[in-house]
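Model it.
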Amino acid sequence: MPPVYGLIHIYGFSVRTTFISLTFKCLDFPLRHILRVLMSVPPPHLPGTLAGVIDLAVDWMTDLKEGVCLSAFWYSHEQCCWTFNETSFEDRDKCPQWQKWSELLVNQSEGASAYILNYFLYILWALLFAFLAVSLVRVFAPYACGSGIPEIKTILSGFIIRGYLGKWTLLIKTVTLVLVVSSGLSLGKEGPLVHVACCCGNFFSSLFSKYSKNEGKRREVLSAAAAAGVSVAFGAPIGGVLFSLEEVSYYFPLKTLWRSFFAALVAAFTLRSINPFGNSRLVLFYVEYHTPWYMAELFPFILLGVFGGLWGTLFIRCNIAWCRRRKTTKLGKYPVLEVIVVTAITAIIAFPNPYTRRSTSELISELFNDCGALESSQLCDYINDPNMTRPVDDIPDRPAGIGVYMAMWQLALALVFKIIITIFTFGMKIPSGLFIPSMAVGAIAGRIVGIGVEQLAYHHHDWIIFRNWCRPGADCVTPGLYAMVGAAACLGGVTRMTVSLVVIMFELTGGLEYIVPLMAAAVTSKWVADAFGKEGIYEAHIHLNGYPFLDVKDEFTHRTLATDVMRPRRGEPPLSVLTQDSMTVEDVETLIKETDYNGFPVVVSKDSERLIGFAQRRELILAIKNARQRQDGVVSNSIIYFTEEPPEVPANSPHPLKLRRILNLSPFTVTDHTPMETVVDIFRKLGLRQCLVTRSGRLLGIITKKDVLRHMAQMANQDPESIMFN
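Modeled.
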């Protein structure tokens, strides 16, 4: 059985088996054949298909660092042991087919030499994966680095980053995302999956002129794609739609809501059909709890919210300071070396601790899980009553055993390690998501708090705070619930998400009963974090990178007018404009060469300054270049006409160039007495890059998004010239 068909047989693919087979068969063909197969999938299906392939590859490559399956090397550890019929439930992670590298190379499974060899190969595999990832990003697709969400937010606000959503970015980000997650670095794939989904949406938009020639409609497709990305990242279609509405999209009309919902639904269905985790769930850490929460537990839940807010503030400030240092010092000139060093440090420290050695998703899954009768984790090493005859799902609180206390120490060390290493990992020149590392920090803290509350309730059930709801022999406290609440609190503290975060978390658990604890933790973490600064991590990186982004959450209440902001101002050179029938090709080319503006207003004449329309710089350059190549008689002295019917020219005159087709005849305009509060609102809701200022049809000036941002900074008593744009 070939490798891909083995995977299909193991996971029981019921949908799109043909596509998966074709995709893997094409691995022996050139790049264009791979792209052709990938792009043949209908738009909403592609993010789900890519997410499933990424999950399968990450599962295998993560286990490859520790060993290999002898019967089929493409099987992960779990898949390998599934196929062995003689494996018992107690030893389900041990089977003859799966061998660690020490067993395979030196025929030893225990002892110092085996440990050192496994340790060395773990580090070697991690370095290899990280080196391949950063090299591919640097050589083929520099835009494939980072999480992508700050740039997606900026693009949806109306700013164009050419090539950021291209095919090469899609391919390289998909491949390198597998590599970096498998390397064991403290990052996740959820944020980059939003970027991958938007690349898919952008590609399919380019196939239809209705979307490729209309930036507004293209941005609606990208909003729906972002919802599909979160849907497959967390297995939360509704949460994905709300994430796009709350966190990413600039303008979200009702029709976009419906399209986003449909895209998220189809993407989640595709991922469910692939079934990458083999458990009929969309995520690895799906959990179900059987014990309700009690009102007295709100206090520790709120404390976890405070911790999440403090962690978010600490992370944002430290990470932005480190990223700024990377941009302003020689450190930024050596991205490969930085990735290698951070990977080496991560692997060296992570291997000795079982909670940092495993993948972060598996760690979160174990922390979320409730301790049942069949659990073999150290976290479930409680002292059992031999006379207990309770059902499996109703195990009472028990005193902690030595394994639980050992796990608490290991988790405390893992918490410190995750907090520190994530600060230096996020922002490197590799795909890096922040959702999973933030959730891991919160889940570790929450599980420690949950075990503490559980043991306190067990040993002191006669205290007044436990007396009314926690009787001896009852299952009172669920430590896994505390881990889930802590994960939500830390993720909310970093991103400032609220509504979409709560919905995503409750979709993970499959129950509505725990919405109140999640809401309390999410709101508390946002309040605490906002007390130290209003910016989330994505807004902070937008400002660090110098993107012209108008945050819809900021209010502008100053009573200034458009004439106070527009350019040119007094003492500045006049506005660069084009006339409708008096400029030659050479004049326009000289104007383009001497300026770096994105476009030029077109007026009747420089004397009247009556506005006709607006011509984009890029379209002007392409139109003149094509005319010189394809039209006979177009020379430097040819007159450019933006009029509907150009006049007759003498026979010995150069052939005129008609460019009315590239002219925007209805550019957005405001009068010079329009309040800036209205102008700012227009820029936000329409995603404008510039608007023209007129009086009775006569052009007075122009306002760009950068002018608006500088004016808002000035009104906030900041130096407007200190705002740098890339």
